[in-house]
Amino acid sequence: MKEVPQISLKQAVAMVKSGDTILVGGFGMTGSPVHLVHALAETDAKDLTYVANNVGEVGLGGGRLVRTGQLKKAIGSFFTSNPEAVAAAQAGNLEVELVPQGTLAEALRAGGAGIGGFYTPTSAGTLIGEKRETKVIDGKTHVLMPGIRGNVALIRAWKADTAGNLVYRMTEQNFNKAMATAADLVIAEVEKIVPVGEIDPNQIHTPGCFVDYLVQASTTLEELGTSASVASSDKKVDDARMNMARRALKELKRGDVVNLGIGIPTLVADLITPEHGIILHSENGMLGVGPAPTEGGAMDFPVNAGKIPVTALPGSSYFDSADSFAMIRGGHVDVAIMGGLQVDEAANLANWAVPGKPLLGVGGAMDLASGAKRLIITMTHTNRDGSAKVVPECDLPLTTSGAVNMVITDLAVFAFEAGKLTLIGLMPGATLEQVRAGTSAKFVERLTD
Questions:
Q1: Given the residues 57, 106, 189, 283, the one annotated as active site
Q2: Average pLDDT along the chain
Q3: Rounded CA separation 438/386 (Å)
Q4: Rounded distance, CA 163 to CA 423, Å?
Q5: Is 222 among the catalytic positions?
Q6: 317-368 pLDDT per residue, tens
Q7: Do 353 and 397 form a contact (C-beta atoms < 8 A)?
Q8: Which of 40, 124, 359, 422 fits 141 for a cystine, CB–CB 3.0-4.6 Å?
Q9: Where do the domains of the chain lie, and which CATH numbers do they carry?
Q10: Which string of DSSP letters, residue by residue, matches 385-415?
């Protein structure tokens, strides 16, 4: 059995050359090769193309590379959380290519498998997909996404043996597993390095043939970043929001696999009990999400897509981001509950581009909206200025076309019945007159709630 060389951080990042495309694993700060990226920020390498889900928090991970001006281009799904990346893009100092999260994961898997590209329904009919080649398959429009490969992959694992076999901890598989296959040179920072034979072959996630070098990594919370500890909840729990969450819960049935988006949908999780028999899916690689722990952090618990530590219910499973979005696109997620900015009469959804803000974040919304069997949108009925959010036609950039099944607002419940927007219920304290006044879309009235 060959041995994979163990090298220092300085030796590792010296292998990155100016102009390289680098693949950087992690989801937020979970499973991120922070030591390698920090060390890279101390080198003279420049004009780099940075491929990752995001560029990390300010001053951490890829955020340091933005600050040092070493990045020429960033390819990923969500950059809005880093103001430095936004500012660099606005100033023309950083080229940004947004790719839906699931498409990004699959492009890396394709690149690592020697597949030139693939067709996906995700982003069809949206700004993200408008410049890509399209093809109608089984009556549905798909966009062509090329596979992605890099010169160097910087990844993080929990454990490795001296042959380079890797094991990831809980939700830390995320983008690491696919990236380990998709670069000419793969460098893994790992917390534990053990002799060959100490890892059960059944437990290995990445075989050693993909890994070129190992770097010993620290396990201290301070070096891993703020998301490594339990975050206190800042969820607003006013009556209107909780009423929307309660109404959404009524749409779920025992055995449903459910993905909850950020904002109001996260409140649904607080209402779910074991008796409901609902299985929560987190797109960063977990099925069977339980409530938040009372203490501890990301070193002790899995982390959900909101980058918050959670517990794992009996029967839970972990997997990488590519498998997670295969579940979504393949129709294995029964219900997605998401927030919205607009829904129109044709069941179109706009929820990723905030008016007046740079379009630098799409995340997994497009994959979920087009892939889940049923899509429920929760949102306030109007904007702060009183303008309608249930409209004749979306004028904000679309997330998906014709996929919304139900809209739950603080005033009303709409369903799409026989292709028509239909008012089926009023929320507590709301009147029909309020709904009519706050809705610019045409709708059928069939109150049943």
A1: 283
A2: 91
A3: 7
A4: 61
A5: no
A6: 999 999 999 999 999 999 999 999 999 999 999 999 877 777 678 889 999 9
A7: yes
A8: 124
A9: 9-217 (3.40.1080.10), 239-445 (3.40.1080.10)
A10: TS-BSEESS--SPPSBSS---EEE-SSEEEE
